[in-house]
Amino acid sequence: MDEVEVVVAHSERATLRVGDVFLKVDADRARLDAEVEAMSLAPVPTPEVLWRKPPVLAIAALPGTTLGRLGGPSTGSPAAWAAAGAVIRRLHDAPPPSRPGRAGRSGGALAAELDAECELLVTRGLLPADLVARNRRVAQAVLRPWTPAFTHGDLQIAHVFVYGDEVTGIIDWSEAGRGDALYDLATFTLGHEEHLDDVLAGYGTDVDLDVIRAWWSLRSLLAVRWLIEHGFDPFAPGCEVGVLRSRM
User: Fold this and answer.
1) CA gyration radius for the chain?
2) How far is residue 128's CA from residue 45's CA, in Å, rounded to a whole number?
3) Boundaries of each Aminoglycoside phosphotransferase domain copy (predicted)?
4) Which residues contact 131 (CB under 8 A, 6 or more apart)?
5) Does residue 237 carry a pLDDT above 80?
6) What does each C-alpha distance from 133 to 31, 119, 143, 209 come to in angstroms?
7) How many Å apart are CA 189 and CA 187, to the nearest integer?
8) pLDDT of residue 234
9) SS3 of residue 49 by DSSP
10) How far is CA 133 from the centre of its chain?
């Protein structure tokens, strides 16, 4: 019998792997529905949906390996990173869904969330005040008008599979919807700034690098407390706190 591998688990959801099948357990049925809908609309490779019986979604494993993970080395070649950039561009060029995704929060809501989170990080002693203040100023560049795109919303490198220099699929679409394309690019290169040029070579258009750097800061500031409270370590080398310190 195949072993059951816990891929990720926290209070909101869990993902298990049994052989060539991934089982996603999510108490939020709307989130499962959104994930299936996004995969059906996305003009990029996605895993096959085997069956769905809320709160469980079963999908087939993708061939190949991921490009790496946050805090770890990348296993992908520059050509693989460029191929990923081209696939991301194909997604962003597609007609965006009507549903707003995680990357589609309004500037006002995002600014209010960021202000509240920065205050908590300092008052609870989780991060030094100067580190928070510096990254809060950098993050300000995110708060500008943007054209809605079809965004993945959680485009970590661990969610992109490649075989050689070819992208075989993208997983975990529960946060997908209308949003800021540069959020996806920033999420994908978070902690792997050395591959940003490769990604943009494949993406094939000029982007505002200051906004990508701003998203690195903003995304990290919003993630630190949640990660600590859910048993993850944002202080590990190459992870969120390291990204914040690199902006100093």
Assistant:
1) 18
2) 42
3) 21-204
4) 244, 245, 248
5) yes
6) 34, 10, 16, 20
7) 6
8) 96
9) strand
10) 24
Answer whether the bond into residue 100 is a cis peptide, omega within 30°: no
- Interatomic CA distance for residues 149 and 147, integer angstroms: 6
Could you give the CA distance from residue 101 to residue 215 in angstroms, rounded to a whole number? 16
Q: Specify the pLDDT at position 31.
A: 87
- Do 32 and 18 touch, CB atoms closer than 8 A? no
Measure the CA–CA gap between 104 and 142, rounded to whole angstroms. Answer: 12
Q: Quick check: 168 and 160 in contact, CB under 8 A?
A: no
Report pLDDT for 39: 95
Is residue 222 within 8 Å of residue 117, measured between CB atoms? yes
Tokens matching residue 109: 């809501």
Inter-CA distances, 157 with 5, 61, 181, 184, Å = 20, 16, 16, 11
List alpha helices for the chain, DSSP H.
29-41, 78-93, 107-123, 129-139, 181-189, 196-203, 209-229, 240-246
* Tokens linked to 90: 């194909």
pLDDT band at 247 (very low <50, low <70, confident <90, very high): confident
For 118, half-sphere exposure in the C-beta direction (CA atoms, 13 angstrom radius) is 22
Decide if 212 contacts 184 (C-beta within 8 A). Answer: no
| 82: amino acid identity, one letter | A
Listed residue (181, 247, 194) closest to 220, CA to CA: 247
- CATH number (3.90.1150.10, 3.90.1200.10, 3.30.450.40, 3.90.950.20) of 62-246 reads 3.90.1200.10
Cα distance between residue 107 and residue 85, in whole Å? 26
Distance CA 199, CA 221 (A): 24
